[in-house]
Amino acid sequence: MTTERLPLAVGSEPWRRRSVARRRTGATLKHAGLIALSIVMIYPLIWLTVSSFKPNSEIFTDLSIFTSNLTLENYVKGWTSQGLPFQVFLLNSSILVVGAIVGNLISCSLAAYAFARLKFRLRNLYFVMMLGSVMLPIHVVLVPQFIIFKDLGWLGTFLPLIVPKFLATDAFFVFLMVQFIRALPQELFEAALIDGAGHIRSFLQITVPLMVPALATTAIFTFIWTWGDFFGPLIYLRTQPMFPVSIALKGFVDAQSQSNYGGMFAMSVISLIPLFIAFLFGQRWLVKGIATTGGK
Amino acid sequence: MSSLGELRKVALNARSHAGVKIKARFPDNKAGYAFLAPWLVGIGVFTIGPMLYSLYLAFTNYNLLQPPRWAGLANFTQMFQDERLWNSLRVTFTYVIIGVPLQLAVALALAIVLDRGMRGLSVYRSIFYLPSLLGGSVAVAILWTQIFGKDGIINALLSVFGIDGPGWVSDPNTALGTLIILHIWTFGSPMVIFLAGLRQIPDMYYEAAQMDGASKTRRFFSITFPLLTPIIFFNLVLQVIFAFQSFTQAYIVSGGTGGPSDSTMFFTLYLYQQAFTQLHMGYASAMAWLLLVIIAAFTAINFWLSKYWVHYDD
Q1: Residue B112: inside a domain, yes or no?
Q2: Residue B203 is nearest to which of A6, A63, A254, comparing CB atoms?
Q3: Are B258 and B142 part of one and the same domain?
Q4: Which domain holds residue B162?
Q5: Are the CB atoms for A69 and B157 separated by under 8 Å?
Q6: Which ipTM value was assigned to this complex?
Q7: How far apart are CA A197 and CA A206, in angstroms?
Q8: What is the pLDDT of residues A7-65, one digit of tens each?
Q9: What is the pTM of this model?
Q10: Would you call A275 and B193 a contact, using CB atoms and an 8 Å cutoff?
Q11: Do B138 and A199 touch (CB under 8 A)?
């Protein structure tokens, strides 16, 4: 499917040839409405950010986002207020993210190549199973998986959160890549076969370079989901030195430390920065990715 | 001896014959299984196996310490009498049935407003999309408890109009509402899917309708909406499935309790408590299967209803 924008000369369509003045008023109103909505949508995030720089005593006494009284105190205090310094949690989250990305890229692309390019026994059955597993609520496998990891002695380590990624358990990405590979020009593969390339070369030298956009989408989504993941770490990680950022933030809620709203806000902002950066640089791939899997 | 040899020859022949046939139909059998190996291990070890085992556990009492004890239908009869479970179902259904359609309606409305070469489209799209990427995070859930707290922005805004608002998150009547609003706030990702869908509608349809003198409203209901229904349907199915599994936001907003007064006790949160704080692993497994059945039923109903409103071109 194409996500390319159709060439479109705005205003040249006959039905849009209304009085210019009326159209301008309409457009202005539309923009006014959209700008108002935009402000409502991001106001919470701006308020969070500004509040994180306010003295603790002012956060709830002065709710405006315009203030001159800014301080870094919340960041300094919040950084160490959870017992361990925050870089420990940032590092843990990073390890989980890197592990998940590498795992997903390798395992999902291998599976996708098989589904999209190869004919083998039971392929259709497997494909249906793969699609079904996208929609399967994890709760159905939760307890047995927990038992497996407990028996393996993996509780309290990152392994339960990383190893499954190397076995293509995030089927959503397999599906995304299958869609992508199927849309590639088939002549390329046929030409490679005629040249005597085996499937390993066809995969590594033709498919992988061509599917970089799908790989980028996978990497960015994996980044965002793993960084934000709360349920998995909540179940498998028990000790503070292993906590990722999401669980460390929970510490602020548990403590109910009424006095440390500033620190909680500051570390919340820190935890959102990587997501925001991924959004800024990856938006193109994200939009393409969800349009590819969702459009048809 | 010779007959045995003959038999062997025939057998071998037949086998190689079958082999040829299989090879023709499945030319990449070996390669296919090689490439699929990680996924096959994953689906077997982490999906199919655990599904079967949790189905078994659903009929047992199991607390991780002693081996599972067969309990027959005890877990299921207990579920029927479990007031808190019924409550968690009510909470979850309310969240899904109100939150999902509202979120999709907002997403669709905005996609239609933003469609067709509108100026500043990419800026608006980014602003509306951002919350859907951050919405699942712990930080945003924390932010939400503060915005809707007794001293939060919402009440500050209301006090301008002389209204003394409650602590929205700590009031059992409104706590779930704040989570539904949070869900609607993340309308960006279905909106992007709608935008992609709108681009697929050929301009010529609109041109033809225009020539026939169709009004703007008419064009929407006769062209845009029908052609978009498959994508609305797709979004609806997926969002319902995902909304049933919401967890993090309710956990953070209620501090893991599902409170106040179980008003944010999502089914998944109750399941988590049963499994990992009470160690009722058998009961939790039975609950998980109930969840699967409910989600499957909703999906089936969605598919069944789709023939009345989803328009398929071909």
Answers
A1: yes
A2: A6
A3: yes
A4: 76-309
A5: no
A6: 0.86
A7: 10
A8: 444 444 444 455 667 777 878 888 999 999 999 999 999 999 998 998 887 777 777 77
A9: 0.88
A10: no
A11: no
